[in-house]
Design goal:
about 25% helix, 7 helices, three-stranded antiparallel sheet, nine-stranded mixed sheet
Length: about 350
């Protein structure tokens, strides 16, 4: 049954500079929220948050980074879709555009198909705010995602959550993998897509342990968050540094087909955007600069390579000769019933 409601403003204590909007919540006690522009003693006090053993691991909390008002219709669609997934406990839209009128957010209508949906106005437009620890998160994992990417089937997200659990909740799991490398000619680190290895999972869709939000905010090396604010980019690379440095292992890439509405390689009317390739080259150059800077700030390179993609489908890998053609043994299985 579809539940719909208009957004309601939930009053907060005066010291919290955060607008919290709610879309129907079955819980009688809504989360209090957390949004403080400076790193106060409360934010970095671990006792402020529930202990790990109290958090549930069978579901995750979705944190969608929202900024563009033009994407609000798409954002509503994506949030509604996530709310229907059995593995989703709750959906939070972290609104980072400080110029958006509160009246606009208040008049938005969302439909929840199960899990409650909330809108939180972040304390600033900093990309670091998407990783703020939140005392209302009641799951051991969070799905960090953008407002223009969606997983269109619940099975893929449920599978990714199981993969995260099976890796002892230590590794970042996601659907978009990238790699770092070192360029001897320039003596600089590069950001690239490598055909057989990866070391970075993008926040387009990233599952990460809740405790790493705290570590990112309160225990990043000095200068990391400031650099992210300076370049307004690369917060996802910094999170990969944080996790790899703490765990000593690389991320896990899972198979899936998420819809990426914001990719510059999307085309309109069958025509590829001309600026896509040059834009991509400039983007990779800037991201390589981020890796180089983070390497300096960390004092070493914590990123670790991973290999292969985890698939939720088990396929026959043996080859058989059928009707004069060598094919996978399960192909055209109706032609032969002989199988060991």
């Amino acid at each position: 049954m579809v539940k719909s409601s208009r957004l309601l403003v939930i009053p907060l204590f005066l010291f919290i500079s955060l607008l919290f909007l709610r879309i129907p919540n079955p819980n009688p006690n809504p989360p209090t929220g957390l949004g403080i522009e400076s790193l106060s003693s409360s934010i970095c006090n671990p006792n402020f948050y529930p202990p790990q053993w109290q958090l549930r691991s069978d579901q995750l909390t979705v944190l969608i980074n929202g900024f563009s008002e033009s994407r609000l219709p798409l954002l509503q669609k994506i949030a509604r879709s996530y709310s229907s997934f059995p593995c989703v406990h709750s959906v939070f839209i972290l609104w980072g555009n400080s110029s958006t009128p509160s009246t606009l957010l208040e008049t938005l209508n969302f439909e929840s198909l199960g899990a409650p949906i909330y809108i939180l106005r972040n304390p600033s437009s900093s990309l670091n705010d998407r990783f703020l620890p939140r005392d209302f998160i009641s799951t051991r994992a969070v799905l960090i995602c953008d407002d223009d990417v969606e997983i269109q089937d619940s099975a893929s997200l449920s599978f990714a959550l199981r993969v995260w659990s099976q890796h002892r909740r230590k590794r970042i799991v996601g659907f978009f993998g990238r790699s770092h490398g070192f360029e001897l000619e320039t003596g600089a680190w590069i950001y690239t897509v490598h055909p057989d290895r990866y070391s970075i999972i993008l926040t387009k869709l990233m599952i990460v342990g809740t405790e790493f939000l705290y570590l990112y905010t309160c225990h990043s090396p000095k200068g990391v968050r400031e650099f992210v604010d300076k370049v307004r980019n690369c917060e996802d690379i910094a999170m990969n540094f944080i996790v790899a440095d703490r765990t000593g292992v690389g991320p896990v890439l899972v198979e899936g087909s998420p819809r990426d509405w914001g990719d510059t390689r999307n085309s309109e009317g069958g025509l590829v955007v001309d600026a896509a390739l040059s834009s991509l080259e400039d983007h990779r150059k800037r991201r390589g600069g981020c890796i180089t800077e983070f390497h300096k700030l960390w004092g070493h390179m914590p990123l670790r390579y991973s290999y292969g993609v985890v698939s939720q489908r088990v396929r026959e890998q043996g080859l058989c000769r059928k009707l004069g053609v060598v094919v996978p043994c399960d192909q055209f299985a109706s032609l032969s019933t002989d199988r060991p």
